[in-house]
């Protein structure tokens, strides 16, 4: 599509602006990347050093060694991965039924939307009390379950869109040819909407991985996630931990990069709950 | 979209026997039950993880339940809700939340709109810029807050160093040390996070405008500026409204950035409603009171949700 809007932007001005803005937006990431490979003398030097003269992998080594970073990464992976699988298993059939049969009508649709927007603080207090009573605090199953609160509505909402976009006639044809309804969904529809489902999975995983509030409240030593680990590094920033904290942040933002570079096309739909078609 | 149930009723019915007729009108019980069976596991989990805890919390909010003092489910009536309205820290948190998120929303929207206009139209490298610019949307708020906290350190941070380079003299601003600057810093992180979001949705909106509208306008002799005012802006109204409401709903819950960057300080000047509620309920164990506070937040968000649904519904009417 041709740029119809506003005055025509000259090519060089456009590129210069874009390069400047993109650099500005990536600056926090670049700064943390640079800090994570700086020798301790360099990140406490004045004026600051932008590009380390002799990059070191020391902080990563310490992070994985002494500070037990592997454990926090593993916990984050187990919780986010487990939640993604659970959310998909529950959401795919539900979304199909909602798209095809409009089960529950408008009321259920509003409930799902409202639950997506629910302030986490409203569920954190009762979950804390209930989990304490049921012995679910600091358990993987408790956390995997807790994140369904926000991720099921998101996944269902997005999947409904994919199921609705799938041409009805193709499914009917498969069923006329002797496919059962379940067979048609599994063998005809799912392969076609697989890219969309993948992005839903990535989005679910990333939102789970990124969360702080629920993890802060419901994890203790054995399920502590990498986001909670950041905060403990923050409150004891000795000069060695400063670098390792940066190293852990670098690892913490990997899912965000994977998601944006793979599924940027679907991000609009995901973030606006389908309110804006991307 | 027409539901499946419409199909048997609209079929031209051939002359059939009584039994066949009934069979056509009423699909077998198994078929009617199946959609509900597919939704049931999801509904079960939603009931258990959301509806039940919320009901439990509502009950707790009417008690003097305190974990630290061992007071149990003592009925307190509406005392917690009344106290909240006279709690200076909660009221201050509400005002501060607004002070931080409203300017951030406006700034993020304007920056995002400018970027969307800049990225509208094919040119080499567009996809790369778009992908890189979209990254902040998905970066963990916790990680972003830590990065910004490091960049804002007065002596070793990147921000003061950049300002020094630009102004030619040593800038030593203590960004997180005074209430006004701390709030501005927290708001700045939200702009960084939300501007790319507005870029994405407004760009999607721009691309959805049919070319014919511009051509028709040009045939009628409209200038570029007029096309922008009378074609582009009106057609971006709905995506903009939906996006602003979603941003508003999300930012009302602001917690992570404050927890990491300022811990609510200096002197409580960056406390948000979520932050204060978290500390009241979870850290200081005033669960009854905290639950009541969380319901005030919930009601606020719910009202915004209703507005969002209203806007979305009106948009469908406008398009129909």
Strand content of chain A: under 5%
Structural class of chain B: mainly alpha
What is the succession of H and E elements of chain B?
HHHHHHHHHHHHHHH
**What Rg of chain A do the Cα atoms give?**
23 Å
Oligomeric composition of the shown chains: heterodimer
Low-confidence stretches of chain A: none
For the secondary structure, the number of strands of chain A is: 0
> What share of the residues of chain A lie within helices?
over 70%
Overall mean pLDDT of chain B stands at 85
As a percent range, the share of helical residues of chain B equals over 70%
N-to-C terminal Cα separation of chain A, in Å? 15 Å
Report the C-alpha radius of gyration of chain B, rounded.
27 Å
H/E topology pattern of chain A: HHHHHHHHHHHHHH
Largest interface: A-B, 104 and 111 residues
List keywords for this structure.
heterodimer; A: globular; B: 320 residues; mainly alpha; 73% helix; disordered N terminus
Would you mind describing this structure in some detail?
The complex is a heterodimer of chains A (278) and B (320). With 278 residues, chain A is mainly α. Chain A is built from 14 helices and no strands. Chain A is globular, with a radius of gyration of 23 Å. Chain B is an all-alpha fold and 320 residues long. Helices cover 73% and strands 0% of the residues of chain B. Chain B has 15 helices and no strands. At the A-B interface, helix 1, helix 4, helix 5, helix 6 and helix 8 of A face helix 3, helix 5, helix 6, helix 7 and helix 8 of B.
